[in-house]
């Protein structure tokens, strides 16, 4: 078949090229720019045109909750932000631009923290950075009162930052400043090795490590028993908070919590960030941050794991394989992700919990959100927005505010003013495991008749002169409350059968002085008291172990045993002594004449 030829002898292809040459080059440049803009619009997931078509009203906040949830009807219903819309800053109308701007600048408020170093049981060190409500009213932080009184009832908020973040992160400072401005005391619990603190033990934090949060929460609750305790977790910190609340159940002293941009399912999230090109860029950037964290603590980490493999990691999964799984002793990376995912624990959360996630989060995909689990739990309210990025949610023309800070502050303040704050109940599993871990790392102890606890050594019974040096704490039983206070913060544990009773007892000063008990005991002690006490120690230790494991009083168990067994004993006695009883009755009966 012959090609089409013009009257001048030119083919069709030559005619097309001649026509294209007649078009100005500026038109081609504009077409190329339009195509590049379209590709970039799609690559960056911009939504400015969509916001413009909606009249710049933003996307509506969607709420997921149980129909009978009192947390929703009585607390979340008072939060105006949860019933409004979220409109992103126009020049940041992209989840990637928002996340990038948050990591570069974020425009955080300016203030100064107070620092407190807390030593955990395994020898690790955690930096607690405080911002008190009184600090914002004073020009100089050093001129303020340096501590909070024990009977202070000002609500206390504990913030758990995200991966490789600390109290200096912009989003953390936005939240801290907002809550302190409302009269709350706020403390940021930095992860181990962050906040300028060195690693002082062989333990590192990870996405499922809740022990540090558990110790910090118990310590703050013991030190400030009258202050309602709340907590907010962001990103990986949100996964830790939800996992901790699910592990503790009713026994946590936390009154309310919020989870912001949680990854929920670590396995799904890890597969998501390795799926597309832009997500792989995030994966590489986070891996670089983790390697920078590891380099700060190279002397410790190089001794525990393969340092060359850690430095060659190009993704989060590779870092977790060579570092996290080795140090935390997980068999595989998938095992670590499955066991540490907070979605597995959301059903056991007994604390009013507000969860906020953006559906366009470039790191924590919407596929990992446990919609049904949140809907089934009456204590959980899940709020999702179409846009927001990861922890960003910038709003306003100047991007000076983070939208998620406002609903969190509204929710926590409404919860604090309501009667739906969580009240700590009797600890069973949590107290037992904490006691076991404390006893395993300290000398054996004797429980004295007056409530004292004295260490036991291999040198035999303690004499009166060395008793004072061997006292490690005090146990006081009062209306079902067990309070254990040791000389170090690492052993502070409190168990209350009723939080209201516990708070009342603490406010009235029911915890007595160790020295006062010792002085009264020495005056009344007989010469053979130590020998008698050593003989009773094993029995009392067994009774206390039974009490802790069952979570109930031994006397209550004895009462139940007597009540339930007396019919059986009565029937058994009737059959055994029936014949003798009948003979005696016949002997007493008068004979007829």
UniProtKB/TrEMBL annotation:
Keywords: Membrane, Transmembrane, Transmembrane helix
Domain AB hydrolase-1: 155-396
Domain of life: Eukaryota
Membrane-spanning ranges: 25-44, 554-577
InterPro entries: AB_hydrolase_1, AB_hydrolase_4_sf, AB_hydrolase_fold
Keyword Transmembrane helix: yes
Any matching Pfam family: Abhydrolase_1
Region (Disordered): 493-533
Keyword Membrane among UniProt keywords: yes
UniProt record similarity statement: Belongs to the AB hydrolase superfamily. AB hydrolase 4 family.
Designated name of the protein: AB hydrolase-1 domain-containing protein
């Amino acid at each position: 078949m012959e090609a089409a030829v013009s009257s001048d002898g030119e083919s069709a292809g030559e005619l097309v090229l001649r026509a294209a040459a007649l078009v100005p080059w500026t038109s081609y440049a504009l077409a190329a720019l339009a195509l590049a803009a379209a590709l970039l619009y799609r690559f960056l997931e911009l939504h400015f045109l969509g916001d413009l078509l909606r009249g710049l009203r933003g996307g509506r906040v969607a709420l997921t909750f149980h129909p009978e949830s009192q947390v929703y009807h009585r607390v979340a219903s008072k939060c105006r932000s949860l019933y409004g819309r979220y409109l992103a800053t126009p020049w940041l109308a992209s989840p990637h631009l928002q996340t990038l701007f948050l990591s570069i600048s974020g425009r955080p408020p300016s203030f100064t923290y107070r620092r407190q170093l807390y030593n955990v049981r395994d020898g690790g060190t955690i930096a607690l950075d405080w911002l008190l409500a009184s600090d914002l009213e004073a020009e100089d932080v050093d001129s303020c009162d340096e501590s909070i009184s024990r009977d202070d009832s000002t609500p206390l908020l504990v913030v758990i930052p995200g991966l490789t973040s600390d109290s200096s992160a912009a989003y953390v400072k936005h939240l801290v400043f907002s809550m302190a401005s409302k009269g709350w005391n706020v403390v940021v619990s930095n992860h181990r090795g962050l906040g300028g603190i060195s690693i002082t033990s062989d333990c590192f934090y990870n996405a499922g490590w809740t022990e540090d949060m558990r110790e910090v929460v118990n310590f703050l609750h013991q030190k400030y028993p009258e202050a309602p305790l709340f907590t907010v977790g962001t990103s990986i910190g949100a996964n830790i908070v939800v996992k901790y609340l699910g592990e503790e159940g009713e026994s946590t002293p936390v009154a309310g919590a919020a989870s912001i941009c949680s990854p929920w399912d670590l396995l799904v999230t890890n597969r998501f960030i390795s799926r597309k090109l832009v997500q792989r860029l995030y994966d590489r950037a986070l891996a670089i941050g983790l390697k920078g964290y590891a380099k700060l603590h190279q002397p410790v980490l190089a001794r525990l794991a393969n340092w060359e493999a850690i430095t060659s990691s190009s993704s989060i999964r590779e870092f977790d394989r060579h570092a996290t799984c080795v140090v935390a002793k997980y068999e595989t990376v998938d095992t670590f992700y499955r066991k540490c995912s907070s979605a597995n624990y959301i059903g056991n959360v007994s604390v009013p919990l507000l969860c906020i996630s953006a559906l366009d989060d470039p790191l924590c995909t919407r596929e990992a959100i446990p919609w049904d689990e949140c809907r089934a739990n009456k204590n959980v309210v899940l709020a999702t927005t179409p846009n927001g990025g990861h922890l960003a949610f910038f709003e306003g023309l100047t991007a000076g505010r983070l939208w998620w800070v406002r609903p969190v502050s509204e929710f926590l303040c409404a919860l604090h003013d309501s009667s739906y704050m969580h009240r700590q109940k009797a600890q069973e599993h949590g107290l037992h495991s904490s006691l076991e871990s404390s006893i395993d790392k300290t000398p054996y102890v004797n429980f004295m008749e007056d409530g004292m606890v004295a260490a036991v050594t291999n040198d035999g019974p303690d004499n009166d002169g060395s008793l004072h040096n061997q006292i490690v704490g005090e146990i006081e039983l009062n209306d079902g409350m067990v309070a254990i206070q040791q000389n170090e913060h690492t052993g502070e544990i409190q168990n209350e059968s009723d939080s209201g009773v516990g708070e009342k007892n603490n406010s009235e000063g029911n915890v007595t002085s160790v020295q006062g008990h010792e002085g009264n005991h020495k005056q009344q002690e007989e010469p053979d008291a130590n020998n008698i006490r050593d003989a009773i120690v094993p029995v009392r230790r067994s009774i206390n172990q039974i009490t802790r494991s069952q979570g109930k009083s031994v006397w209550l168990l004895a009462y139940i045993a007597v009540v339930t067994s007396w019919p059986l004993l009565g029937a058994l006695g009737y059959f055994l002594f029936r014949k003798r009883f009948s003979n005696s009755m016949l002997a007493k009966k008068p004979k007829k004449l």
